[in-house]
């Protein structure tokens, strides 16, 4: 019998026997305290900004948020964890007359695309405070309308399927639970300003790590409002926890991993270095809302590689342990996500305020919010000596090469790439798209701009990108109220601050006009030369990267042909097959390699092809090279000695800033 049929039959039997629907939950959910009678609020609560619909219901449809009332209480249990299910009970008390509009979020903080978390919610039952069934309607695909009873209480039960432990969704199994709040907790329109309590019925030996605040009762936590809950991931399981004090605040590292305590201790020391190095960039830590910041590090084999920033914590997930190169890979996510505690969680674009949980969230500024963070994540690893020069310059090579190779970057600005995040940020679609020719990730786009800007400030303006970030922090990030920035920024704000830091408003205007609003390519070679670095073409033939062999030995065009490439000019595209190249049959990768080794870049060879429609024809194929480069020290091999100015700039750029 299917789960759905089983649940339906249980419900029918309960009703026939005169049992309330909530009785179905009695065996799996711990008894919950009865909601206290509603008390009139002494005064309206202050409005929250970050995602809280204190303005028009977080831009969600429905009534605007009302003043705070009795806390919304959630109970979370895991009676069927082995099959990735959690049981959630939400209690809404002190309700006014009229339907209660219960919804699930459709987007999540730090993700800008749409996810529709309701697809993993089922077995929904609503009762009043005495377990009497309540009428429930489904007005649309994203929630339910429930008519409260005479006691003004709705108790809303549902089952959640959770089988992806990452920064967006939720993962539950017999070993752990990794819960991203928008994927887990329903909410009620109009009650977003109420305080929240969450009780976890954790399995034996499970610890709980979260930025939510302990609420007195065992395994019970609180949030000041719904928006704060939505920004608060929770990790449950057997954990190794390390804490230390940093400038009067507590930093916690909670790790779920098969590693030994000694390995976790060593990793903690590396995380400490990251915290101090990034603090030095801004000059201080943020004031965490409750004096504590927590790294939620889920390094279990079943985790999915991801990272997600939050105000007072970060979600770190990867199926890697803490051994060797794996530890460095994990640390790369730490450097990126911790930098977000300043850049994007507090230094925040105005077009993301308040965050809309019922649709996509488009921003013009992700080249700065994400791209500059990408740059500093890698630079931090060089400054902590987790990278040597060669490893960091490999990252620089990637940023430059991605920009040079991208057809889309020739036509689309940093603003335009940022706006595409609503489709590119793990948004789901099944129809083919032409992103290879139209999109360059705002991570790479912005990292390249940060690189160019940092070097130009150092070379020409006796300033640094660190100073620019400090200025943004002081003017737009440091002052917070109601768990949100009091002064989110616009792009004209960023341009003005750059002019102040560079002491050159004309330069700031030119930079934004060319590279932010425009799509000019930064002068990477000229900028890197200031640090004694050369941009050296790799002279790689592009064809080897653009085709691949399937299990049947067919050489197929593996993706959309890039504008300007030999494949594009020959009229070939994804799914077309190369039968012969330079009169040689192509049946295995070695056949292709042998042909390519005999030819220099930009030679033209004959090719026999079969289109995906089945037609065969002969074409002349240009063997173009990629635009990829390798950034190298000019003094490598004693070719060009460094000047004192180049040496000084490079040393100041890459050295630790911790004093």
Write the layout of secondary structure elements.
Layout: H1 3-16, E1 72-80, E2 85-92, E3 100-103, E4 121-127, E5 136-140, E6 143-146, E7 154-161, E8 170-172, E9 176-179, H2 181-184, E10 187-188, E11 196-201, E12 207-210, E13 213-214, E14 220-223, H3 226-230, E15 234-237, E16 240-246, E17 249-256, H4 261-282, E18 292-298, E19 306-309, E20 313-317, H5 325-339, H6 366-383, H7 389-405, H8 414-419, H9 421-424, H10 435-438, H11 442-460, H12 465-477, E21 480-481, E22 484-485, H13 491-502, H14 505-516, H15 524-529, E23 533-537, H16 543-546, E24 547-549, E25 555-557, H17 566-569, E26 577-581, E27 584-585, H18 589-597, E28 604-610, E29 616-622, E30 629-633, H19 644-654
Parallel strand pairs: 1-11, 17-18, 18-20
Antiparallel strand pairs: 1-2, 2-7, 3-6, 3-10, 4-7, 5-6, 8-9, 9-15, 11-14, 12-15, 13-14, 16-17, 19-20, 21-22, 23-30, 24-25, 25-26, 26-27, 26-28, 28-29
Helix pairs in contact: 4-5, 5-6, 6-7, 6-11, 7-11, 12-13, 13-14
Task: Output the number of helix runs.
Answer: 19
Per the principal axes of the C-alpha atoms, what is the gross shape?
globular
Number of domains: 4
**CATH architectural category of the largest domain:** Sandwich
Instruction: Assign the CATH topology of the largest domain.
Output: Immunoglobulin-like
The fraction of residues assigned to DSSP E strands is 15-25%
Enumerate the spans where pLDDT stays under 50 for 5 or more consecutive residues.
1-67
CATH first level of the largest domain: which class? Mainly Beta
Record the strand order, biggest sheet: 4-7-2-1-11-14-13
How many E strands? 30
Please compute the radius of gyration using only Cα atoms: 28 Å
Share of residues in helices? 25-40%
For the sheet with most strands, the description reads: 7 strands, mixed
- Mean of pLDDT: 91
Classify the secondary structure makeup into a structural class. Answer: alpha+beta
């Amino acid at each position: 019998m299917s789960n759905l049929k089983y649940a339906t039959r249980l419900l029918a039997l309960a009703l026939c026997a005169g049992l309330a629907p909530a009785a179905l939950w009695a065996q799996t959910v711990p008894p919950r305290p009865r909601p206290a009678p509603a008390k009139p609020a002494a005064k309206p609560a202050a409005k929250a900004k970050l995602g809280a619909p204190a303005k028009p219901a977080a831009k969600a449809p429905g009534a605007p948020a009302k003043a705070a009332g009795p806390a919304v209480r959630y109970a979370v249990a895991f009676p069927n964890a082995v099959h990735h299910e959690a049981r959630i009970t939400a209690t809404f008390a002190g309700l006014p007359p009229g339907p209660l509009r219960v919804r699930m979020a459709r987007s999540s903080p730090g993700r800008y695309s749409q996810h529709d978390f309701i697809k993993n919610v089922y077995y929904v039952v609503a009762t009043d405070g005495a377990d009497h069934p309540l009428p429930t309607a489904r007005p649309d695909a994203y929630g339910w309308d429930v008519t409260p009873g005479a006691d003004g209480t709705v108790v809303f039960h549902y089952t959640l399927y959770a089988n992806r432990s990452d920064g967006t969704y939720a993962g539950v199994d017999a070993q752990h639970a990794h819960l991203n709040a928008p994927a887990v907790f329903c909410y009620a329109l109009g009650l977003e300003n109420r305080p929240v309590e969450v009780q976890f019925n954790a399995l034996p030996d499970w610890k709980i790590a979260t930025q939510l605040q302990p609420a007195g009762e065992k395994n019970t936590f609180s949030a000041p409002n719904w928006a704060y809950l939505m920004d608060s991931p929770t990790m449950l399981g057997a954990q190794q926890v390390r804490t230390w004090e940093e400038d009067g605040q507590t930093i916690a590292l909670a790790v779920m991993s098969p590693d030994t305590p000694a390995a976790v201790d060593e990793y903690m020391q590396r995380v400490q270095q990251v915290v101090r190095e990034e603090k030095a960039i801004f000059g201080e830590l943020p004031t965490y809302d409750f004096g504590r910041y927590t790294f939620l590090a889920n390094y279990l084999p079943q985790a999915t590689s991801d990272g997600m920033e939050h105000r007072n914590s970060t979600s770190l997930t990867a199926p890697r342990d803490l051994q060797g190169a794996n530890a460095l890979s994990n640390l790369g996510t730490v450097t990126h996500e911790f930098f977000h505690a300043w850049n994007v969680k507090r230094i925040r674009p105005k077009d993301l305020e308040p965050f809309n949980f019922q649709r996509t969230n488009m921003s013009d500024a992700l080249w700065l919010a994400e791209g500059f963070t990408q740059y500093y994540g890698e630079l931090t690893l060089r400054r902590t000596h987790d990278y040597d020069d060669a490893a960091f310059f490999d990252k620089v090579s990637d940023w430059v090469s991605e920009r040079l190779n991208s057809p889309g970057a020739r036509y689309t600005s940093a603003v335009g790439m940022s706006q595409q995040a609503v489709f590119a940020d793990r948004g789901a679609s099944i129809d083919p798209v032409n992103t290879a020719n139209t999109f360059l990730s705002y991570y790479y786009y912005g990292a390249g701009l940060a690189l160019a800007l940092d070097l130009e400030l150092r070379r020409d303006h006796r300033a640094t990108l660190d100073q620019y970030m400090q200025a943004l922090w002081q003017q737009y990030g440091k002052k917070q109220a109601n768990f949100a920035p009091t002064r989110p920024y616009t792009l004209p704000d960023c341009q003005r601050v750059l002019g102040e830091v560079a002491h050159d408003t004309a330069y700031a205007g030119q930079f934004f006009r060319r590279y932010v609003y425009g799509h000019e390519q930064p002068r990477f070679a000229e900028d890197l030369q200031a640090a004694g670095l050369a941009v050296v073409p790799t002279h790689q033939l592009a064809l080897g990267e653009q085709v691949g062999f399937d299990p049947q030995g067919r050489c197929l065009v593996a993706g959309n042909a890039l504008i300007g490439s030999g494949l594009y000019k020959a009229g070939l595209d994804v799914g077309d097959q190369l039968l012969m190249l330079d009169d040689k049959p192509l049946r295995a990768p070695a056949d292709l390699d042998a042909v390519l080794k005999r030819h220099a870049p930009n030679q033209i060879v004959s090719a026999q092809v079969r289109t995906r429609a089945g037609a065969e024809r002969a074409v002349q194929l240009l063997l173009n090279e990629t635009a990829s480069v390798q950034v190298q020290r000019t003094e490598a091999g004693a070719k060009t000695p460094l000047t004192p100015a180049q040496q000084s700039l490079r040393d100041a750029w890459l050295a630790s800033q911790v004093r």
